[in-house]
Amino acid sequence: MAETVVKIDNLVKRYKELIALDHFDLEIKKGEVFGLLGPNGSGKTTTINCLLSLLAYDKGDIEIFGEKMSPVNYGVKKRIGVIMQNVAVFDELTVYENIDTLMPDGFAGKRVMSAAIDYFCGLYITDKATRKKYVDDAIAFVGLEDFVKFHPKKLSGGLLRRLNIACGIAHKPELIILDEPTVAVDPQSRNKILEGILQLNREGATIIYTSPP
Ligand code: ADP
Ligand code: MG
């Protein structure tokens, strides 16, 4: 029996009077590619944000890698890679710097403003040579070799998505969560992204992705 990677029990999330998640259960085993499918507003992003402890919920239990998930469970967080629905990159940084997250002094404070930042690679890999290899691997994986010195504003929508993915997977996470990775992406980038997801899975990662049905 494969190990359970994600276990959600009885999750309830309300936004004031709106019940976004009503006693939701989910179990995902190691090695799965799990598609969380549902129309807009069905609670996919809410589920992911609760799962990652980026959002407080009203009721329920969430375990990842057999541990209770919490905002300060950094041991678990570093094993997860997240690609958010809305592309989240820093316009001030180049493609390479975004993936590397090697901050000049003074910038670090800005980063910490976003809780999601916990899931980027820079905070976890301090050895310079290893980090460079990880960043180079991520760049090659998404095919952004020719754009490393570009700033995000100069990238097309598809390339920006690929940068977003590189940021999420650079630290070689065991669990990768992608929220609508292929929505509003041109067919070519879409195929590349889907092939990439399967490749990451073949290399051993457990995958959760969301999509409209
Ligand atoms: P999906 O990702 O499947 O489109 P969401 O999780 O974003 O769904 O939204 C689920 C429901 O919760 C929707 O009805 C949405 O309008 C509502 N919702 C999401 N975020 C908020 C929020 N911050 N405040 C109030 N309602 C929200
Ligand atoms: Mg969503």
Task: Explain how this protein is built.
There is one protein chain. The strands form two sheets. Strands 2-1-4-5 form a four-stranded antiparallel beta sheet, covered by helices on one side. A four-stranded parallel beta sheet has the order 3-8-7-6, sandwiched between helices. With 213 residues, it is of the alpha/beta class. The chain has helices at residues 44-51, 74-77, 95-100, 108-112, 128-142, 157-169, 187-202, and strands at residues 4-15, 18-29, 33-37, 59-64, 67-68, 80-83, 175-178, 206-211. It contains seven helices and eight strands. The site of magnesium ion (MG) has 5 residues, from helix 1.
Q: What class would the helix/strand composition place it in?
A: alpha/beta
Helix content: 25-40%
Largest sheet: 4 strands, antiparallel
Strand content: 15-25%
Write down the Rg: 17 Å
Low-pLDDT sequence parts = 102-117
**Averaging pLDDT over every residue, what do you get?**
86
Count the helices. How many?
7
Outline, from the CA principal axes? globular
Total number of beta strands: 8
Give the strand line-up of the largest sheet. Answer: 2-1-4-5
What is the N-to-C succession of helices and strands?
A: EEEHEEHEHHHHEHE
